Amino acid sequence: MNKCSLSGSSVFSLKGRGGGMQQPKLLDQVRNLIRSKHYSIRTEETYVNWVRKFILFHGKKHPKDMGEKEISAFLTHLAVNRNVAASTQNQAFNALLFLYRNVLGIEFGELKDVQRAKKSRKLPVVFTKDEIRQIITQLEGYKWIMAQCMYGAGLRVMECVRLRVKDIDFGYGQVLVRDGKGAKDRVTMLPEVLKEPLKLHLEKVKSVHDRDLKAGFGSVYLPFALERKYKNADRSWAWQYVFPATKRAIDPRTKVERRHHIAESVIQRGIKQAIRNAGIPKTGNCHALRHSFATHLLEAGYDIRTVQELLGHKDVSTTMIYTHVLNRGGKGVKSPGDMLWR
């Protein structure tokens, strides 16, 4: 078991044991270890937030002085009192597992006494081709391009905003999705309708990048240790984001002023507004464009394994959910109400 570097009374204390050199706060230890393992900043923020909530739930008691009983109580509280989704409860569990196993060096068991949040099996919202056409017609500029990427290539919203220039292959007509969900890379198609608008868009992005370079900026975040391995790669055109933010900002990790990718909330709001403007009575969002991509491919007769690969699903059973819209299997029976009048 690793020795915790904090004094026992307060988990937020900076004082080290024996009056020696000050040690990092527990939450800073979590952050530092997450960064050393090259987890995304979203994972870092999520894990730190859950660890903080766990500590506050137990009256700021130090995690090293707690165990399976307190962890079970917290996770049960989330399910029973907070009524969180099963995925949210699992997220909190993973954060605490990381804290105890990787930071404190403490293993805990299966937590059999935890009240599990109920897993809801919701069918995905799918738009018809005509509805997709109406939605995309409401958009323009980079939002139109992003919507076409999510529907035409099956990208998740975060995969879309994180696209780099080098990931677009106009020659082969494909998009390389790097480090997608589950830290997997995959290749999907680049819709023909996107090629010319995307080229024009990248010309505008290139002019912004050139101005940043002249102003002494122009660097972009690089994953893992690539910034040290490839000198000046962070300033190269190939590594720039396809959909950059309108303003530069300070990187919270390196404190370097950079132009990051556009916030996913921008396109999320844009898609929801487009759905409202189109007068479509469905509660869809960006992910519904990806759902529609999969469903329309299956409707066109493409093999489900091919669709699975394009979506980046680990298991084909995940892809099977899209067959609910199709007239296939047991769900494809004719209504007796229709057969009555034949």
TrEMBL record:
<dbReference type="InterPro" id="IPR010998">
    <property type="entry name" value="Integrase_recombinase_N"/>
</dbReference>
<keyword id="KW-0233">DNA recombination</keyword>
<comment type="subunit">
    <text>Forms a cyclic heterotetrameric complex composed of two molecules of XerC and two molecules of XerD.</text>
</comment>
<comment type="function">
    <text>Site-specific tyrosine recombinase, which acts by catalyzing the cutting and rejoining of the recombining DNA molecules. The XerC-XerD complex is essential to convert dimers of the bacterial chromosome into monomers to permit their segregation at cell division. It also contributes to the segregational stability of plasmids.</text>
</comment>
<dbReference type="GO" id="GO:0005737">
    <property type="term" value="C:cytoplasm"/>
</dbReference>
<feature type="domain" description="Core-binding (CB)">
    <location>
        <begin position="21"/>
        <end position="104"/>
    </location>
</feature>
<dbReference type="GO" id="GO:0006310">
    <property type="term" value="P:DNA recombination"/>
</dbReference>
<comment type="similarity">
    <text>Belongs to the 'phage' integrase family.</text>
</comment>
<dbReference type="InterPro" id="IPR011010">
    <property type="entry name" value="DNA_brk_join_enz"/>
</dbReference>
<dbReference type="InterPro" id="IPR011946">
    <property type="entry name" value="Integrase_integron-type"/>
</dbReference>
<dbReference type="Pfam" id="PF13495">
    <property type="entry name" value="Phage_int_SAM_4"/>
</dbReference>
<dbReference type="Pfam" id="PF00589">
    <property type="entry name" value="Phage_integrase"/>
</dbReference>
<dbReference type="InterPro" id="IPR050090">
    <property type="entry name" value="Tyrosine_recombinase_XerCD"/>
</dbReference>
<dbReference type="InterPro" id="IPR004107">
    <property type="entry name" value="Integrase_SAM-like_N"/>
</dbReference>
<feature type="domain" description="Tyr recombinase">
    <location>
        <begin position="122"/>
        <end position="335"/>
    </location>
</feature>
<keyword id="KW-0238">DNA-binding</keyword>
<protein>
    <submittedName>
        <fullName>Integron integrase</fullName>
    </submittedName>
</protein>
<dbReference type="GO" id="GO:0015074">
    <property type="term" value="P:DNA integration"/>
</dbReference>
<dbReference type="GO" id="GO:0003677">
    <property type="term" value="F:DNA binding"/>
</dbReference>
<keyword id="KW-0229">DNA integration</keyword>
<dbReference type="InterPro" id="IPR002104">
    <property type="entry name" value="Integrase_catalytic"/>
</dbReference>
<dbReference type="InterPro" id="IPR013762">
    <property type="entry name" value="Integrase-like_cat_sf"/>
</dbReference>
<keyword id="KW-0963">Cytoplasm</keyword>
<dbReference type="InterPro" id="IPR044068">
    <property type="entry name" value="CB"/>
</dbReference>
